[in-house]
Amino acid sequence: MDWSALIEFDKQLLLWFNGSDSLFLDGMAKTLTTASTWIPLYLGLLYLVIKNNDNVQKILLIVAAAGLCVFLAGSLNDLLIKPWVCRWRPSRDPEIAMLVDTVNGYRGGDYGFFSSHAANTFSIAIFFALLVRSRVLSIALVLWSLTNCWTRMYLGVHFPGDILCGLLWGSIVGTGIWYLHQCIRQRLTSSVSYISTQYTSTGYQLADVNVVICILVMTLIYAILKSCLYIYA
Q: From CA 121, how far away is CA 140, in angstroms rounded?
């Protein structure tokens, strides 16, 4: 395999995704890539877990599993992989940094392989998709993760290859942690399969799932409104 050609293609593809002449899109990317924007979503998922699990052990197990997803998918990457691989972010790469559009001078740290945003969000999306078993929630969380991935390329802080590897690692972590959760959960209680129009197959109320979906929609509306204000800032 010609790695130099693949790396060059990765750089050219990044320039296609990166930046625009739209202040609105600049504001959207900056808002959606900010971790604090998604705090309501995390609280919504916590609400979903608390409302649909009948004891503290089950709740703490899920919270610990989600935390382990974040640690293995993102934190470990920041601590070990990025310093070891030492691949420049596009915004720091001496070969193309001058061609990369940035927003308000935001360039991120020195190294970007692989994307912790992609790995973190996709591990959470996969874990909760397997846990809750709601098609609507699964699609919404995957789109949420992919939206975060788009912001990283738009802002010029990750190559598409960084994103792809982050998604791959995130899917492995999310699936693996779900299996670990299931093994431990079976020791706490017997599994029950729900057949109802009001519950998912794993016992989560659809009305509570809809709360999480509404939070996602409202967060998107917030991002749109903030991006409109960004134009006149």
A: 12
| DSSP per-residue string spanning the chain | --HHHHHHHHHHHHHHHS--S-HHHHHHHHHHHSGGGGHHHHHHHHHHHHHT-SSHHHHHHHHHHHHHHHIIIIIHIIIIIHHHH-PBPTTT-TTTGGG---STT----SB-SS-HHHHHHHHHHHHHHHHH--HHHHHHHHHHHHHHHHHHHHTTSS-HHHHHHHHHHHHHHHHHHHHHHHHHHHHHS-------SSB-TTS-BHHHHHHHHHHHHHHHHHHHHHHHHHHT-
Do 190 and 203 meet the contact criterion of CB atoms below 8 Å apart?
no
Closest CA to 47 of 39, 79, 57: 39
pLDDT at residue 195 is higher than 80: no
pLDDT digits 0-9 by tens, 3-58? 788 899 999 999 999 988 899 999 999 999 999 999 999 999 999 999 999 889 99
Q: Give, in degrees to the nearest 5, the angle at Cα 76 between 71 and 80.
A: 175
- Of 100, 79, 81, give the one whose Cα is nearest residue 89: 100
Distance between CA atoms of 91 and 150, rounded to whole angstroms?
A: 15
